[in-house]
Design a protein that fits this description.
about 375 residues; mainly alpha; transmembrane; membrane; cell membrane; transport
Length: about 375
């Protein structure tokens, strides 16, 4: 005589136990997969963002090359690497040369600082202190360094850490450019897979969300790069007319800083200080009145360009850009507006969708069945 079959409750308990075990194993598998991918996640995210942003350029270039998609992807990847490596190499070479020259002057005892300008002492509160320190530096630079060694040593460590972090981020970004070249080559196939995954998650609006994310990424990339180019060119022209030396190099530095969302202030502010110390007041005032609006013009142009062609309000894109950058760094510049744009569309759909009563309930009637006679 065989075992008696399980009753319905035992069958439900067995199915629940089986489902819980499967979910636990699936969760462990997902955690393990994410742990393995986590070191490469920033590179992959950057590669996907670059691939989406560069897809129209790749299509245009492949059409110019008579359908040679691989050659177009190769040329586009080399061009992107050149845009990143070129200015970095020029800055590194200039920094090495300047450092070598400084060390030579220090070893030869020929390092001399100019005397402080007389107008500097007229500054309220801090003018006399700056003149005193400057005068000490011109007569006894070694003594000044020894006097502030407790402040300069931690500052040097922080600068070294900052430069090493920037270098590591640049290496990761270059790897992301190479990966984006591979992704853009397989763009149509990856787009199909992305639409399928989105359809499984948020059907039937998955394809719309994919299109929304694509347009948002491209608008943000155009806004960032376009405004950065405009700012760097205009500021370089102003510096050239003002007689500032190395205006072209400063323009390249401003371009990189704007793309990295640091802004041109790190270059413009020291230039303005130098102008006020060395130029006549009228010239310095005129230069300040021109450079200050150019420095902050990205705060106005970027939201307008990023929201162009989108149904999402500009304020949503702007909040996504600022919040994403503050929360996740440069990659948040793209993730923030994409997430908020999709969330806004979901919220709008949920609010505007009419709420229909269940089929067995009609307005004005009770949900109880009428009594039987």
């Amino acid at each position: 005589m065989g075992e008696a079959p399980l009753d319905n409750r035992d069958q439900i308990d067995a199915r629940v136990t089986d489902l819980v075990i499967r979910l636990i194993l699936l969760g462990l598998f997902i955690v393990l997969a994410l742990t393995l991918v986590r070191p490469f996640l920033p590179i992959l995210v950057w590669a996907m963002v670059l691939a989406v942003a560069l897809a129209p350029i790749h299509t245009w270039l492949s059409n110019c090359l008579r359908g040679r998609r691989k050659l177009a992807a190769f040329i586009l990847t080399l061009a992107m690497l050149a845009v990143v490596i070129g200015p970095v190499a020029a800055l590194a070479a200039s920094l090495v040369e300047s450092t070598h020259r400084l060390i030579s002057h220090i070893n030869g005892g020929n390092l001399k600082l100019p005397t402080p300008p007389e107008s500097l002492s007229a500054l309220p509160l801090i003018g006399e202190k700056i003149v005193a320190l400057w005068s000490l530096a011109t007569t006894n630079l070694e003594g000044l360094v020894l006097r502030f060694r407790e402040v300069l040593a931690p500052l040097g460590k922080h600068l070294l850490y900052l430069f090493s972090s920037i270098g590591f981020d640049l290496v990761k970004f270059m790897v992301a450019i190479i990966v984006s070249g591979i992704l853009v080559l397989n763009g149509p196939e990856l787009a199909i897979w992305g639409r399928r995954i989105a359809a499984r998650i948020v059907a039937p609006r998955g394809e719309k969300f994919v299109d929304l994310a694509t347009v948002t990424i491209r608008n943000v990339s155009r806004g960032v790069v376009g405004v950065a180019l405009l700012q760097s060119i205009l500021i370089s022209i102003v510096l050239q007319f003002a007689g500032v030396s190395s205006a072209g190099l400063l323009g390249f530095i401003i371009l990189i800083l704007c793309i990295l969302q640091i802004g041109p202030g790190l270059v413009v502010l020291p230039v303005l200080v130098w102008c006020w110390l060395t130029m006549p007041t009228a010239h310095a005032l005129l230069l300040t009145s021109v450079l200050v609006p150019l420095t902050f013009m990205d705060n106005v142009l970027k939201p307008l360009l990023m929201a162009r062609g989108l149904s999402t309000p500009t304020i949503v894109i702007f909040i996504g850009v600022i919040g994403g950058t503050l929360s996740f760094g440069l990659i948040g510049l793209f993730l923030g507006p994409v997430v908020l744009a999709v969330f806004y569309d979901l919220l709008l759909t949920w609010v505007m969708h009419p709420v229909e009563p269940p089929p067995h309930i009609t307005p004005g009637t009770s949900d109880k069945a009428p009594p039987q006679e």
